[in-house]
Amino acid sequence: MITRSAHEMSSAMVSGEITSQELTKKHLERISAVDKEVHAFLHVDTEGAMSQAKAVDDARARGEKLGPLAGVPLALKDVLVQKGIPTTCGSKILEGWRPPYDATVVTRLKNAGVVILGKTNMDEFAMGSSTENSAYGPTHNPWDLSRIPGGSGGGSSASLAAFQAPLAIGTDTGGSIRQPAAVTGTVGVKPTYGGVSRYGLVAFSSSLDQAGPCARTVLDAALLHGVIAGHDPKDATSIDSPVPQVVAAARSGDVKGMKIGVVKELNGDGYQAGVRSRFEESLEHLAKAGAEIVEVSCPNFEYALAAYYLIAPSECSSNLARFDAMRYGLRVGDSDGASAESVMNFTREVGFGREVKRRIILGTYALSSGYFDAYYGSAQKVRTLIMQDFTNAFTKADVLVSPTSPTTAFKIGEKANDPLAMYLNDIATIPVNMAGIGGMSVPNGLAPEDNLPVGFQIMAPAMQDQRMYSVGASLEASLLSQWGAPLLSKIPALAGSK
C-alpha cells in the first residue's frame, strides 16, 4: 500500500479497502524502519498524525464530503510553522521552539484532511543544495545512502523516495524543491511566486521563497497544489486570482500543438553526459506526443547565478536579524551583567552554521553604504533582464524546458568545502525564481553512467502553472510506457523494507 500513489491511496480509502488510521500507521512504521538510515525527518508527530487520521475516518463514516487527499499522509518541510510542533529550520538557533500558530499552507492541509506525519530535514534556513548544512546531520538519498538527496528540501524528497510519505511540502528559493526532486526521482513544483501563501514560512529571501508540492506522480503534485494554493490576505505578495487548473491539466497530459522551447543557455557544457542524453530522449517523447520543439535563447541567464548570490544573501541578512536571542529560540551568554549585544553575539555564533554565516556576511556587505548600488542594485537590474528574457522566450514557446540539475546526486561531503561548486547545482533552476514564474521537475529516467535519477525541468509563464502539468503528465506517461513501471520501483531496497 505505501508504494501506491496518493490518489490511489485516496481511492482505496473511499472504497473501504483501508482506513486513514491504518494507512497512517503503515507510514509511521515505515519511518521507524528506515529513517535511521535516511534521516528524512527531524520530528515525527505520531500522536498528532493518528489523531488527524481518526478525525478523517470519523468524518467519512458520517458521510461527510471530503477532499481528494483526505486521509493521505504528508511530510512537511521544517521551515513552515505548525502550532505546537517543533520548528527548527534545520538550525540550532530555533532548537526546541514550538510556534503558537499554523502557516496558511498548514491550515489548508488540515482543512483538506491531509495527515501531517512530521517535519522534514533541510539545509539550515533553506541555504544549500545538499541537505548537508542541517545542524542535525545530513539526509541520505534512498537511491544510494552515500549520496545527497538534494537541497535545501532533501528531507521532503527523500521521504517520498523512501516511501515514508506519499506527499510532501517543500520550499523553493533557487531550486530547493526541483533539484531534490531531480536527484531522487520524484516530482517537485515551484508554483508562480504569490500563488501559494508565504504566511508562516520562515523567510530566507522574501522575494524568492515559494512553498510548493512534492510527490511521486504529476497528478499527486497537482492535487496537492490545488489544496495549498490560492489567495491569502495574510500575505501581501499573494496573488488574488483563480488557481490555475492544474488538476485537469495533469489528468489530460495533452501537449498536441504545444510549442516547447529548449533554452540554449541551459543545455550546454557542464552537464553530465547521462543528464543530456535523457533530456534529448525526453524531447523526442514530447515530439511524438504532438508537441513542437523549438530552440530559444535567454542570453542573460548566464548572469543569474551571480545576481542570485547577491539578492538572496542580502535579503537573508535582513530577515535573519530577527534571531536576536531576545524573543524566542536559543539564548547563550546570558550571565549577570551581560549586555544585550554580547548575548546576541554569543547566541548567533553558536546558533548559526557556517553557510548561514557566510550568506549573512555576503548580504550585509552587499547592502552596506558605498556598495549597495554596485552590488545589490546591479543584481536587481540583472533580474529585470532575466525577466525580459523569459517574456521574449514565451512569445516563441508555451513552456520552456531544460535539465533540472547538471548532474545526478553526488557523494555526501564531495562538495562540502567548495561553496561555488555547490552553488552551481542550481544553475538551471535559479532563473525561474528570479522571474517569479512557475517551474517543475519531473523524473525522466536514470543516467546510464551511475543508474541514478535525472530530472527534466519545465517552466511556464506566471499563473500559467497548468501548462507545466500538461507537459509533465505527457512525459510521465511516455516514460512509464518505456520503463514498464514507475521509476521508483527500480530503487535499491533499503533495510527495513517490507
Model description:
This protein is an alpha/beta fold and 498 residues long. It has one domain: Amidase signature (AS) enzymes. The chain contains 16 helices and 11 strands. It has helices at residues 6-15, 20-38, 46-61, 104-111, 154-161, 178-184, 218-228, 246-252, 273-288, 304-319, 340-351, 354-367, 373-393, 419-423, 430-435, 466-483, and strands at residues 41-44, 73-77, 115-120, 167-171, 187-190, 211-215, 259-263, 292-296, 399-403, 438-446, 453-460. It has an 11-stranded mixed sheet, sandwiched between helices. The model has no long low-confidence stretch (mean pLDDT 96).
State the gist of this model:
With 498 residues, this protein is α/β, with parallel strands linked by helices. It has 16 helices and 11 strands.
CATH class descriptor name: Alpha Beta
Apparent shape: globular
Unreliable spans are none
CATH homology superfamily name: Amidase signature (AS) domain
Largest β-sheet summary? 11 strands, mixed
Tell me the count of domains: 1
- The rounded distance between the terminal residues' Cα atoms is 10 Å
Widest β-sheet, arrangement of strands: 1-3-2-4-6-5-10-11-9-7-8
* CATH hierarchy: architecture: Alpha-Beta Complex
Radius of gyration: 21 Å
CATH topology category name: Amidase signature (AS) enzymes
Percentage of residues in helical conformation: 25-40%
Mean pLDDT: 96
Task: Give a quick set of tags describing it.
single chain, 498 residues, alpha/beta, Amidase signature (AS) enzymes, eleven-stranded mixed beta sheet, 16 helices, 39% helix, globular
